[in-house]
From TrEMBL:
Residues 5-62 form the Disease resistance protein At4g27190-like leucine-rich repeats domain. This is Disease resistance protein At4g27190-like leucine-rich repeats domain-containing protein. Keywords: Plant defense.
């Protein structure tokens, strides 16, 4: 087995109580985790990013970039707990122009707990699909808006460049019917 095949069958990664850890993976390792089903990060107070991004100008307070997110097609559980410096889950890459689209076809569990600086899932205009999501917990994330049933100027925003977005986007944009069923 060569080094490119290392970790190709790895399904679960758990990182717990690594207070001095700044990042978990180097960017050149991403392609090796195509079988990853569960990513669990807990009590990593200094964590700046899970995937180190080389050659891309991103803030150091995100979990992944959009290119990383598109590689996680087998992911079933995303759990991030007690990471005090984390501001966003997916980082916006410098070269992005189009509306980002995130599809997590297998994610059934999403837990975001005790992330006091978390503001949003992704800082730019985006759509996300979570067709199998069954268990969601967002707790002790005071800066984040979880759901919005409408954004009065959402269609206008879609036509603007992401740099000019005038409002803070929620984690999920849902229609009124879905929002009523959540209460």
């Amino acid at each position: 087995m060569n080094s490119a095949d290392s970790f190709c069958k790895l399904q679960v990664i758990r990182v717990i109580s690594c207070e001095n850890l700044v990042n978990v993976f180097q960017s050149d390792m991403l392609a090796r985790f195509h079988s990853l089903e569960e990513l669990f990060v807990r009590e990593c107070g200094s964590l700046q990013e899970v995937f180190e991004v080389q050659g891309i100008n991103v803030k150091e307070t995100q979990v992944v970039t959009t290119s990383v997110a598109t590689c996680l097609t087998q992911l079933q559980q995303l759990v991030i707990v007690d990471c005090k410096e984390l501001e966003e889950i997916v980082a916006e890459e410098e070269a992005e122009q189009a509306i980002a689209r995130f599809i997590f076809p297998r994610v059934t569990v999403l837990h975001l707990v005790d992330l006091p600086r978390l503001e949003w899932f992704y800082p730019g205009v985006h759509t996300s699909e979570w067709p199998k999501l069954k268990n969601m917990l967002v707790a002790y994330c005071p800066k984040v808006e979880i759901f919005a049933s409408e954004l009065s100027s959402f269609q206008d925003i879609l036509g603007q460049s992401q740099v000019e977005i005038p409002i803070k986007l929620p984690l999920f944009l849902v229609d009124d019917e879905v929002r009523k069923s959540l209460h």
